[in-house]
Amino acid sequence: MEDIGELADRLREFAVAREWEHYHTPKNLVMALAGEVGELVAEFQWLTAEESVRVMDDPEAASRVRAELGDVFGYLVRLADVLGVDLLDAAATKLEANERRYDPATYRGTFRKAPPLP
Amino acid sequence: MEDIGELADRLREFAVAREWEHYHTPKNLVMALAGEVGELVAEFQWLTAEESVRVMDDPEAASRVRAELGDVFGYLVRLADVLGVDLLDAAATKLEANERRYDPATYRGTFRKAPPLP
Amino acid sequence: MEDIGELADRLREFAVAREWEHYHTPKNLVMALAGEVGELVAEFQWLTAEESVRVMDDPEAASRVRAELGDVFGYLVRLADVLGVDLLDAAATKLEANERRYDPATYRGTFRKAPPLP
Amino acid sequence: MEDIGELADRLREFAVAREWEHYHTPKNLVMALAGEVGELVAEFQWLTAEESVRVMDDPEAASRVRAELGDVFGYLVRLADVLGVDLLDAAATKLEANERRYDPATYRGTFRKAPPLP
């Protein structure tokens, strides 16, 4: 898989080949995304912080986590495709806003919510 | 922003510059991802299916949805980076499994859960 | 089961009998709640609004939905118990705030977000 | 607030008084529940396990957590009311199944997923 555009194309073709486009409203895809994120959360719920850092050392847990990440990313890319949103652009816009909002000198070491940008 | 790798690099640098890496355990990042997906769900909760299809026609709603997608994607990329998972590979693996699992002739037009692959 | 207090007691005893209290930090229980809500969302993701209204007419779907609601409620009650929060009080407080915030005459028939209460 | 039944009645009256019942399909209420759980998760995402245990010691955090629990519980009760599900019964059924599924002697101290009940 080359890039997000190729993944979006293949997910669209997957839906078209099965005549499943009618399921793929933004509302339904947002729910599918939330359901998959719930499965990812469940993989981590009883782990300590330290265990979560080492989760990929266990081949079975690693395989489940990787599969859940694939499900989450697939629905996110399909949702963005249906909405006509460029995910890299959208994330870059937010990152740049956060770079202005959270001055490194002020927030070093400790997170607290910054006031919204003017 | 060129690709996922560049976004992952910039998100890592953002955390390092603020000494926030200690917050970015997989467990915490999964929670941050779930929190942002909750905000995305909230944008769609009272919309009908038809309204959700046209959500990007309203500039204010479009701006909020785009920002939430950026937040979700940012945390997903940061999480995958911390775990050492290639998101495109993980999604391709799942898509290929679903292509085998859901034969187009059998599942045309109507989704139901297929038995797991052997 | 008589009331929420009895359910909270039995869930606490269930954890104590298995020496699982160390898993039941608020952080972990919030994640378990989110995971179960994800499973509930997944039951509804491909249903139309109309199908969702009739979901309990199908005995198999009804049984799954009822089980997921039981899981969600169980973790919510356990979480509130661990935090020392009275769920009925907390919900009543929010309901009363919303009764003041959303004047029936102004908001009749159409929801839009009200400004926060002063 | 006396019990869940009274809360369900008052939430129904709240919706009726504003002619908002058309928003309250099971599908929409599940999304509203997921959105509120996302806000609850966000309160805990950067806390260590230990900080999460003491979260109610900070009056501002306690107030936010209590408000989010009230929102989550309100939507859960409204959803169960619309579906005709008794939350206490549903949770008791799941608890009894888990009491059979997780024998205390076998699972003492360490959780792992039990095989489903026959």
TrEMBL record, chains A, B, C, D:
Lineage of the organism: Bacteria, Bacillati, Actinomycetota, Actinomycetes, Streptosporangiales
Protein name stated in the entry: NTP pyrophosphatase, house-cleaning of non-canonical NTPs
CDD domains: NTP-PPase_RS21-C6_like
BP GO annotations: nucleoside triphosphate catabolic process
GO molecular function, one term: nucleoside triphosphate diphosphatase activity
Xref: InterPro entries: DCTPP
Matching Gene3D superfamilies: MazG-like
